[in-house]
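Agenda item 2: iron/sulfur cluster complex prediction
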Amino acid sequence: MKIAVVNHKYHYEMEKLVRLFLPNEKIEVTKDLNGGDGLYTQVGDEITVYFKAGGFERRLTAPLCGDNEMQMGRMVYSIFGEYTSFYPKWGVLTGVRPSKLLIATEKRLGREKTEQYFYNDLLVTNEKYSLARRVADCEKSVIGLSKPQSFSLYISIPFCPTRCSYCSFVSHSVETKKARSLLPEYCELLSKELEITGKIAYETGLSLESVYIGGGTPTTLSAEQLTDLLKSVENNFDLSVCRECTVEAGRPDTVTEEKLRSLKNGGVSRISINPQTFSDEVLKNIGRRHSAQETVTAFNLARRIGFDCINTDLIAGLPGDTEEGFMASLDKAFALDPENITVHTLALKRSSGLGAQDMSVTAENAKKVDSMLGYTYKKLNGKYHPYYMYRQSKSAGNLENTGWCKENTECLYNIFMMEECHTVLAAGAGAVTKLKAPSLGKIERIFNFKYPFEYISGFEEILERKKRISEFYGTYF
Ligand code: SF4
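Presented output:
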C-alpha cells in the first residue's frame, strides 16, 4: 500500500498506525498517489487524510492544532477503523511501554489530565487505561525503592534445547553439535565478564538490587555449570542489598532435580517454568518437544525443592489454539497456584519460523486474542494483580503482555527494566547494558556481540566496551 506524505514528517508514525490495522501490508512511502489506491496525508491550511482502496473511499479534514501529528493519527485511526471494522483498544498509542508513558505524563499533567489525555488524545479505551493505571500505581511503589546508585544485573544464556517456531530471540538449539560445543568456552568467558563487571560495579560504588538470568533457556546448562555461574555472581558482586535473583527455567524439558537444587543452593529466589499452553497439540504446533504433563511435573518438583516464587508464562494466540483451549490452559496454570502468571500476546517477527511462513496477524485473530485477554482479566483479577506490562510490534491487535502477581511477589527486575528506572549491567551474548543517570533523560546502551561464536571471538572487544561504564559514572554522578 502507498502512503503519500505531503508537507509533514510523520510518515514513520503513520506507517506504524496503519500497521495496527494491516500488519502484513507492504508499505511504500511516496509523495503522491497519482489517482491510485492508498493513503494520502497532508498538512497545509488544514490537515487532510484521504484513503482509497477497492470500493472504499474516505476523506477527512481538520483544522491545524497544537499537535498536528496526533490529530492526523486520530484521523487515520478513524478511517482504518471503519475500513477494517476493527478499533485497536490502545487507540493511536503505538509505543511499547504504556505504563511508563502514563507515569511520565502524570508527572507533567497530574492524574486527572493524564486520564483525559489517554482517553481523548490517544483514544485508549477505558479497559486499557485502567490496566495501565493499575500497573503504573504498582510500579511506582517498586520504582520508589530504587536509588540513583542502584543497578540490576542481567546474564544472557542464549541456548535452548530446541527452537520454538514463534521465537525471534537469538537462541541456539543445543541439538546441533556446533552450538553444544560452544557451551564450555561460553561459560568460561561469561564468568570472566562477570568478574570484570563486578569490579567496575564495585569501583563505581554501584549497589546491586536484582539479578536476572535469562536467555534462551539458562537451564540448558548442566547443574554443575549453573552452580559455577551462580558462584561467579556471588564471588564478584556484593549481594548484601540484592533483593531478588531470577532464573528462567522456561522449558520443562530442561528441568531436573539436580539443576533445581543447584539453583536453590545458589541463592535463586524466583524461577520461571513456562507452559505457554497446556495443549499437547498446540505445543507440537510451536515445535516444543515436551508435554503439558512435563510442565506440571517440573512445577511440582520446584515446589517440593522449596521455590516459593514461581512464574508461569502463557501465550495467547498460538497457532491452532482456540479461545476455549486458551481458557483451559489458563485454568490449569491457575490451579498450579504460581505466584506470578505472565500472559503474552503472540508476536510474530520475521526472524521466527512462523513469521517466515507469513502467518497473518489479522483483525479477526486480534479479536480472538482480545477475548483471551478478557478471560485472563476475569480469571486472575482478585487473587492476582497486574504489575508490569509491555507491548511488542507485530502482536495481534497490538495487544499487551501483562505480568500478574500475588501480593508482594512482583518481579522487581521486570519493573526496573520495563520502566528503565535504573542501570542494567549485562553480560553474555546478545546482552545490552543500559546506563541510566537521574540527570539524563535518555539511556546509554553498550551492546555485546549477538551470537555466542562472536561473543567468544570478540571477547576482548566486549571487555573494552565495558570501560564506558566507569566513564559514564565519572561524568554523570
Ligand atoms: S524456549 Fe524461549 S528462547 Fe528458547 S527457542 Fe523457545 S521461545 Fe525461544
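Discussion summary: The longest strand covers residues 207-215.
Owner for follow-up: CH.
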